[in-house]
Specification:
heterodimer, A: alpha+beta, Heat Shock Protein 90, 5-stranded mixed sheet, 7 strands, rod-shaped, B: alpha/beta, Rossmann fold, 6 helices, 5 strands
Amino acid sequence: MSTDEPNQQQTLDTGVDAALPPPQPGSQAATPRSFITSALRSVQQRSIEQRVLAGFGLVFAGILVISVISYRNMTVLIRNGQQDQRSHEFIQLLGAMGAAMDDAENGHRRFLVTGDESYLAAYHTLQERAPEFARYLRELTNPDSSQGAHVTHLAQLITQQLQDEHNAIELRKQTGYEAVRGMALAGVAKASLDAARKLQAQMEQEENNALAQRVIESTSTTRSSIILLSIGALLLFVLLAVVYYLIRHDITARRRIAEELHRRGELLEAANKELEAFSYSVSHDLRAPLRHIDGYASLLAKATAVSLDDKAKRYLHTISEAATRMGQLIDDLLVFSRMGRQEMLRGTVNLDQLIAAVLHDLRHDLQDRAISWKIAQLPDVTGDAAMLRQVFVNLIANAIKFTSTQPNATIEIGSRRDGPNDAVLFVRDNGVGFDMQYANKLFGVFQRLHRADEFEGTGIGLANVRRIIHRHGGKTWAEGTLGNGATFYVSLPLARPST
Amino acid sequence: MTLSKPIVLAEDNPRDAELTLAAMEEHQLADKVILCHDGAEVLDYLYCRGSFKTRLQGNPAVVLLDLKMPKVDGLEVLRTIKNDADLRPIPVVMLTSSREERDLAESYALGANAYVVKPVEFHQFLKAVKELGVFWGMINEPPPEGASRTAGRSA
C-alpha cells in the first residue's frame, strides 16, 4: 500500500496545483517540492478519463493487496487452530500414556507379590497398546522436530519398561516370590519409568510453550489484520471519494460547457434573426427612396424636356444613374449576405457539366467575341451545386470581362490535385491582369482595381466567390501581372469515390 | 380592348402611388385605378364598407398589393381574400420592394397569382407597371361574377 501513497497525494492535491508557490532556489525544500510540483503537473496533464482510470486502478490494487494479506493471515490463524487442536490431543495422550505405564508397573508389582495373574491386566493392556500410543504420538508430531525425537525415546522407554517387567514376571512364574522379592519392593522398571515421566513432563512443557507461542502469534496476526483492514478501507474510501469528486467535477464542467454552448447558440440565433430582419429592412425600405429619386428625376426630365439645356439634362441623368447604381449595390450586398446565411445542400458536383452550363448561361456576353477556350477535364467535388455555379459564373464572367480589350483572348480552365482530399481549380486569362501588391484586395466586398468607366461591375463577385469557397472549407487566391493576364484559384474538397 | 373593371392598388407610400399612377397614365389606365392607402382600406373596398359603402357592386379586375403597409399588411389582406369564397377568384399580384425568399414563398403559399419586385430603375418600373396593368386589366379575362360561389362551395 505504501507505494500507492505518492499517487494518492497527487490525486488529492490536483485542484490546488495553481496555488503552490514555485520552488525556491537554494531552499531545503526545493527538491521534494519541485518533484511534487512536476508530479502534480504530470497528473494535471492527464485527461479526466486517465485520472479516473488511475483512481479506479489504485482502488483495485488496494483491494487486491488487502485480499492477499487477509488471506495469508486467515491461513495462519486456521493453521494455528489446527495445531492447537493437535497439541491438546498430544498432551492428553501423553497423560493417558503415563497413567497406563503407572498402572502397568503397579499391577505387575502386585502380581510379583501375590502371584495373582489378574493383576497383570494393566500390564497386558500397556503391552497391547504401546505401539498404538507410539503411532498416535508420531502422527501428532513432526518427525524432524525435537518432539519427534522425544516420541522415539519415549517409545524405547516403554519397550524397556515392558521388557523389564516381562523378565520379572517370567522369573516370578518360574522361581516364585522369593526370587523377585527385591524387585517387587523396589520396582523393576523404576529407572525407565522415572525417565519416561521426566520426558513426558518435558514434552508437555514444550507443547504448552508452543501453544502459548501460537496464541501470541494468532493474537498479533489478528490485531495486524484488523489494523490493516481499517487502514485499507480508509484509503479505499478516500480514493473512491477522490474519484467521485473527479467524475462529479468533470460532469459539472461538461454541464457548464453544454449550457454555455446552448446560450451561445441562442445568442447566435438571435443575432442571425436580427441580421435577417436588418437585411429584410434594407431590401424593402432602402430601395423605395432610390426608386423615388430615379422616378422623379425621370418625370422631371420628361416634364422639362423642352426647356432644359443639355447640361441640366446631364445632371438629371446623373441623378438617375447614381440611384440605379446604389440599387444595384444594395442588391449585390443582399445576395452577398444571403450567401453567408443560406443553408448549404452538399452533394457531388460534376464540374464538367457545371462549366458547360455556365458557358451556356454566359453566351450573350460571348457574342462578337473571339475567345480561344482551353478547358481541361475537371474532377468531381463535394459541395452545393448552386453556390459553386455562382463561383464559376463569377470567375468566368470576370475572365470574359477583363479580356475584352484583348484581340486574341485566351481563357483556360483546369485543375490539379492538392493532397489526397482536395482539388485546386483555376481560371486563367490573358486579359488586363492586376498588380500583385493589390492581390489581397481582390476578394474584398466592393473592392475594385479598375475605374468604373473601364470595366463595369460593383466589386461583389470575388467577395461572393471567397465566401462560398470558405463555406466549403476551401481557399481562394490569385496570381497576375499588370497587363499580362490573371489566374484565379479555388480549392475544394474532392468528391468521395462511391463505394 | 377596354377595361370594364377597376384595378385596386394598395400602396401606403404616396410617392410610389404617384409613380405607379404616372406609369398607368401612359396606357390610359390611371382612371380605372382605385388607390387604397393601407390593407384595411383594401378590405373595406372589397367588402363594400366604410368609405366604399356606396360603390358599385362587383369584384375588381386585379388587386396590386404592397407587402409592407400600415394597419393590415399585404400578406394579411392576401390571406383574407384567399380565405373568402366570394373574393378568392380575384387575381392578386404582389407588387413590392422585397425580393426576400420567405416573402415570395409565403405569398405563393397563400395563393398569390403573381409576384413582382418593383425595379429601382424608373424605366423598368414604368415597364413593369404598364405590363401589369395591360395584362391583368386588359388581356387577362377576369372570372365571371357569381362563378365564385359555385367554386367556393365545391372547394
